[in-house]
Write a sequence for this structure.
């Protein structure tokens, strides 16, 4: 559905994104993770035909970005939730959606039906006649989501849709994204919320000007960070650690009363490690397998690029 | 270019204007003053110096032209800088519309209300001016060629000029009032012409008005190219916001 090859954008001397290459399949939720200024918004803007590319190629379905004749076709099939909601404060919630429905040439009957459906799904139907400017931040964000969907786009681009929302509103938005995923919509989600990415995305790309890695959350966790075994002891002494280092080849770190040991295959290695600890005189209180989180992966990758 | 898309944008903008008191007041106040205040002045001047009436009434016709230069700026600034403040340009530009459809829509929204208000007020002005001068002059002074040219040629040309100028100044302004203040500079040459006519340095006859029309038309064409160059998607998103 989305194919990007070597996409680069420069603003004068500044390179905002460089050499992006990835694909987003039909019905996939693709998350773009990266720190502020990493080029996430620039990428979305290029894919939505809002700004030009400097070099490289990108296709949405069979249409090419940067090609004047294809731009309108691309815009017809996408919906955008920008990082700023950008509603018309003086118009009602309904009028905001109706205006966009008209711009996207959605027939009147279907337009009204969709407005009602999406506002009800997002729990703000009763606010349809309220001025957009009078709505809470969470409601505005939900309204911006409904606006992006009113013409039933095949692809939805979302730029940090839960940023600055309270936990309850953020959950509603995330649940709504999961609902859209069930419906088979293709979603391109910019976020720097790791938990959100892990919960809703099928695959994640980590960007910092360049695309650093792409994979499913599991693939990223497995490929980039080694698992660790944490052994809590009654007491940790230097003699114990020194003895242990003679007995096992694994890397050992000490934190309070805990030994944190790098392992490759926990199932195979842990019994031997625990036996070695016990025979070195350690009194084992608790053994925990530390599974690296997406946050660990993200921080490691971003740190490596500094 | 699809006029229907431009019209959707214009209709939305005009709806927004009706919700903003300051926009409504500015569309009502000036036409009201011109349509009622000026006939009153004509009435008092006519009672003292009837010979000066034709010159005065022709000069006063010029107020509609000044209005046409000033009023669209007030709306265009709201329309353009307002989008910038509300940060609504990004979703709007992501919709399947072209830059020219968007610019046309914005221009229609800034053109129709002031020109309509000026046309309505001109009818009231002519009726009241005729009423207060009929006995003195012995004939109905309006309509005549001068006001005909002012209303049908100069008013639309002048309104277009001020909208184009607004597009240019709005690209650099961050609040509507700043854009309005800068925009109002466009009315200064017209005010100067009015003052010149009042002190009888020039006569606002048909020939002079046609020359002014020609000058404004040329300025319209130049500003059209400048404003369309300013009003480009990437420029708007990366430099306007």
């Amino acid at each position: 559905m989305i194919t990007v090859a070597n996409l680069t954008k420069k603003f004068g001397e500044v390179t905002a994104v460089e050499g992006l290459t990835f694909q987003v399949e039909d019905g996939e939720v693709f998350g773009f993770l990266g720190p502020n200024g990493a080029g996430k918004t620039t990428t979305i803007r290029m894919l939505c035909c809002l700004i030009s590319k400097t070099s490289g190629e990108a296709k949405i379905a069979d249409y090419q970005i940067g090609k004047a004749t294809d731009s309108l076709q691309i815009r017809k099939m996408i919906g955008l939730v920008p990082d700023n909601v950008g509603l018309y404060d003086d118009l009602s919630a309904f009028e905001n959606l109706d205006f966009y429905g008209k711009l996207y040439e959605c027939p009147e009957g279907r337009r009204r039906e969709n407005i009602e459906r999406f506002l009800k799904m997002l729990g703000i139907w009763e606010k349809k006649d309220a001025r957009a400017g009078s709505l809470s931040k969470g409601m505005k964000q939900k309204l911006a989501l409904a606006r992006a969907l009113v013409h039933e786009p095949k692809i939805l681009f979302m730029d940090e849709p839960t940023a600055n929302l309270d936990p309850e509103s953020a959950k509603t938005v995330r649940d709504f994204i999961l609902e859209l995923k069930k419906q088979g919509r293709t979603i391109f989600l910019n976020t720097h919320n790791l938990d959100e990415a892990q919960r809703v995305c099928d695959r994640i790309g980590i960007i910092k000007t360049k695309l650093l890695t792409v994979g499913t959350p599991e693939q990223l966790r497995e490929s980039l960070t080694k698992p660790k075994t944490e052994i809590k002891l009654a007491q940790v002494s230097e003699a114990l650690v020194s003895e242990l280092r003679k007995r096992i080849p694994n890397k050992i770190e000490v934190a309070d009363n805990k030994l944190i040991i790098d392992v490759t295959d926990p199932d195979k290695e842990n019994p031997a490690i625990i036996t070695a600890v016990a025979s070195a005189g350690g009194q084992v209180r608790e053994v925990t397998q530390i599974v690296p989180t997406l946050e660990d992966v993200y921080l490691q990758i971003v740190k490596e690029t500094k | 270019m699809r006029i229907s898309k431009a019209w959707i944008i214009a209709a939305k903008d005009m709806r927004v204007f009706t919700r903003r008191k300051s926009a409504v007041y500015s569309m009502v106040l000036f036409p009201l003053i011109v349509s009622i205040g000026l006939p009153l002045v004509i009435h008092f001047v006519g009672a003292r110096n009837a010979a000066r009436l034709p010159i005065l009434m022709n000069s006063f016709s010029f107020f509609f032209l000044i209005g046409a230069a000033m009023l669209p700026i007030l709306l265009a600034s709201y329309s353009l800088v307002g989008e910038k403040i509300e940060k609504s340009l990004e979703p709007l530009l992501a919709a399947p519309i072209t830059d020219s459809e968007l610019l046309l829509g914005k221009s229609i929204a800034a053109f129709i209300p002031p020109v309509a208000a000026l046309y309505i007020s001109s009818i009231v002005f002519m009726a009241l001016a005729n009423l207060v001068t009929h006995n003195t002059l012995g004939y109905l002074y309006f309509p005549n060629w001068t006001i005909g040219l002012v209303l049908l040629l100069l008013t639309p040309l002048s309104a277009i000029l001020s909208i184009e100028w607004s597009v240019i100044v709005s690209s650099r302004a961050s609040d509507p009032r700043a854009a309005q203040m800068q925009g109002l500079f466009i009315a200064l040459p017209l005010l100067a012409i009015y003052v010149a006519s009042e002190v009888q340095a020039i006569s606002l006859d048909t020939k002079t008005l046609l020359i002014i029309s020609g000058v404004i038309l040329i300025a319209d064409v130049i500003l059209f190219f400048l404003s369309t160059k300013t009003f480009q998607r990437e420029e708007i998103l990366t430099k306007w916001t």
